[in-house]
């Protein structure tokens, strides 16, 4: 995820500290500083016939425009960096960010073209600390046929009705258990008094366990708790100084990943042995129980234990910074928009009454059929910008809709700039779920809505993210009323709620 924005630090000292940290980060993130001006020369050297390097500025020597980008990330309007330059140079412009010259796009059609471009020409780029932790076998950096195979297997599994049914049952059970605990909390005292809840923390606990079971088949218990502890240490280093000395965050995160890998490899080996002793698991018409089963069932020698374990850890990341944040932002926006909350309640209460009257349990198809609930989730994704953008690196000169991206340059597809563009979305800074009632297909097909990326690297778990958010919201609005406290969205280095979205909940009677 890429830096977006948040609120201004509370004092000048905080800004100064941020800039000093940024300077140090730049020093370590830049693999080769400016290359003696060679990359400046790349702007005018050769290129694809007919393509033109966008207008813009490379900023200051060494630091480029990165500090300006970071300052905007801390401001009330984190998209201001891109907006200002878009007014000067157009929605596609050149800059110099994170140690490299870059083309920045907030143009829907250009951004869509980048996402769908030849994957061998534009390859993923991530900070060095993240690359260290992910490893070369991560689906985030894999290319070619192996990437397509892993992505295809994951996408098919995450979309399967069997997994959606499993996730629905797990989510209903865990959400119900969590909400029962709220009712028994010391604040509630069992008498219906409001209980204090931090939505972000609660969502993370629930989603992590559900996703881990879907990925590696691990059930609740000591090993689940151990894995969560190690995962928290691991994820803390994703955006950190890429220094592996003992005592540094990256070193601690690498050690945590090593311990996680050991546990996951043990599970993989147990499954391999079971396939041998039972003549091949899932060979008699049964469905795979988890993602490891899917990958082992493919039978490819390329799908090694190392690759499988690395990617199981990668797939856990949405349980920390994607789905829980989506749920939390939805609660925040609904709390600030009573008409939307009322319509969401009415839609979900109607479904609940109908299913109770029919004596049926709620299934995953029921949740996904809630039209206004899906509009709320879509609008939350647009306004919240959980993923602010993605970066690609050009391995050769590339032309995208007449724009030249020189070899070695990066291209930043800035989703936030598109999602908050008044030319694409009316009154873009207002939470308005009703906007998706009529224009959804037009906006999405034109590249105006890309919260999950696109092309060959489209997020394979997008359906599950929507399903989990739908289930949480359904049980929240049909079982509780709440009063939200003030909280602010922080977007640097990842999107989160500063206080975890505290609310006071009261069970409906």
Automatic annotation (TrEMBL):
Keyword Transmembrane: yes
Pfam families: p450 (PF00067)
Protein name: Cytochrome P450 90D2
Pathway membership: Plant hormone biosynthesis; brassinosteroid biosynthesis; Steroid biosynthesis; Hormone biosynthesis
Transmembrane segments: 6-30
Xref: PANTHER family: CYTOCHROME P450 26, CYTOCHROME P450 90D2
UniProt KW keywords: Heme, Iron, Membrane, Metal-binding, Monooxygenase, Oxidoreductase, Transmembrane, Transmembrane helix
């Amino acid at each position: 995820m890429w830096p977006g924005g948040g609120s201004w630090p509370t004092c000048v000292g905080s800004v100064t500290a941020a800039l000093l940290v940024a300077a140090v980060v730049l020093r370590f993130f830049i693999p080769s500083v400016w290359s003696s001006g060679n990359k400046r020369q790349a702007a005018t050297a050769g290129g694809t016939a007919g393509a033109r390097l966008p207008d813009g500025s490379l900023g200051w020597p060494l630091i480029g425009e990165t500090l300006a980008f970071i300052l905007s990330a801390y401001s009330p309007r984190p998209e201001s960096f891109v907006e200002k330059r878009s007014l000067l140079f157009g929605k596609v412009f050149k800059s110099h960010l994170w140690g490299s010259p870059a083309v920045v796009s907030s143009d829907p059609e250009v951004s869509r073209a980048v996402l769908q471009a030849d994957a061998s020409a534009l390859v993923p780029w991530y900070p060095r600390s993240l690359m260290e932790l992910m490893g070369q076998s991560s689906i985030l950096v894999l290319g070619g046929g192996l990437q397509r195979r892993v992505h295809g297997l994951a996408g098919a599994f995450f979309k399967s009705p069997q997994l959606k049914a499993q996730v629905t049952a797990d989510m209903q059970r865990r959400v119900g258990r969590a909400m029962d605990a709220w009712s028994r909390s010391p604040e509630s005292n069992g008498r219906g008094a409001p209980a204090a809840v931090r939505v972000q923390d609660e969502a993370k606990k629930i989603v992590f366990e559900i996703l881990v079971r879907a990925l590696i088949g691990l059930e609740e218990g000591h090993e689940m708790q151990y894995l969560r502890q190690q995962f928290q240490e691991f994820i803390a280093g994703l955006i950190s100084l890429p220094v592996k000395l003992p005592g540094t965050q990256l070193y601690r995160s690498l050690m945590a990943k090593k311990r996680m890998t050991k546990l996951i490899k043990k599970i993989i080996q147990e499954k391999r042995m079971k396939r041998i002793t039972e003549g091949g698991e899932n060979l008699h018409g049964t469905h795979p129980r988890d993602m490891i089963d899917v990958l082992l069932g493919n039978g490819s020698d390329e799908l090694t234990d190392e690759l499988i374990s690395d990617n199981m850890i990668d797939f856990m990341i949405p349980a920390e910074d994607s789905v829980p944040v989506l749920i939390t932002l939805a609660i925040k926006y609904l709390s600030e928009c009573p008409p939307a909350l009322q319509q969401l309640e009415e839609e979900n209460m109607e479904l609940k009454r109908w299913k109770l009257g029919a004596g049926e349990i709620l299934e995953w198809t029921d949740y996904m059929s809630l039209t206004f609930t899906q509009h709320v989730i879509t609008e939350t994704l647009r306004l919240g910008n959980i993923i602010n953008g993605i970066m690609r690196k050009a391995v050769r000169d590339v032309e995208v809709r007449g724009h030249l991206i020189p070899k070695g340059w990066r291209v930043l597809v800035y989703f936030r700039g598109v999602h908050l563009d008044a030319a694409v979305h009316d009154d873009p800074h207002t939470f308005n779920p009703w906007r998706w009632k009529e224009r959804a297909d037009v906006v999405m097909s034109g590249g105006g809505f890309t919260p999950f990326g696109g092309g060959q690297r489209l997020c394979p778990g997008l359906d599950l993210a929507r399903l989990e958010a739908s289930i949480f919201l359904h049980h929240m609005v049909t079982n509780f009323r709440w009063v939200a406290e003030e909280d602010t969205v922080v977007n640097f280095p990842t999107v989160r709620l500063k206080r975890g979205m505290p609310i006071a909940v009261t069970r409906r009677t």
